[in-house]
Amino acid sequence: MIHRTHEYFMQIALEEAKKGDMPYGAVLVKDSEVILKGYNTAQRDSDVSAHGELNVLRQFTQARKSYSLEILKGYTLYTTCEPCPMCAAACVWSGVSEIVFGASTKDLIAIGSEQIDLTCEAIVQRGFQEIKVVGGILAQDCLALFEPGFT
Ligand SMILES: [Zn+2]
After folding, report:
1. Cα(55) to centroid of ligand 1, in Å?
2. Is-catalytic flag, 33?
3. pTM for the predicted model, two decimal places
């Protein structure tokens, strides 16, 4: 198995983020291979839940036409920004093994983005799954997408 770094996959998530209504991108990885990619489509789909992470999880379960609390066991979800409480909860419901994010919710609030001030880690700790959470990967690049005129 080829070993690829968190930064490698975060770069792919950053490219996805640029396609979104808002600059949030997500990539699902297993055994160092990209399985699925996605981005925020809340406006184009008129769907408040169409965050990058949820779009990826939804694509995954729908493609497999199955669902279980362990469907994403062994997978890592890369996301340019820390999952919001809704997406973090979906990660718990899917049993994803690892969440790797770029910018934190605190970083986003600091630049004036409207966010629910609750960490992904807080949701995961209250859940019932073993999920490793890693943050801060290419955080500045992820935040830079929010600068006016960047995308
Ligand atoms: Zn979310």
Report:
1. 10
2. no
3. 0.95
59 CA to centre of ligand 1 in angstroms: 15
pLDDT tens digits, 42-70: 999 999 999 999 999 999 999 999 889 99
Catalytic residue among 7, 15, 33, 53: 53
- What is the three-class DSSP state of 100? strand
Q: How far is the CA of 87 from the centre of ligand 1 (A)?
A: 4
Neighbours of 111 (CB within 10 A): 10
Integer-rounded Cα Rg, in Å, for the chain is 14
What torsion do the CA atoms of 88, 58, 138, 7 make, to the nearest 10 degrees? 120
Measured in degrees and rounded to the nearest 5, phi and psi for residue 37 equal -135, 155
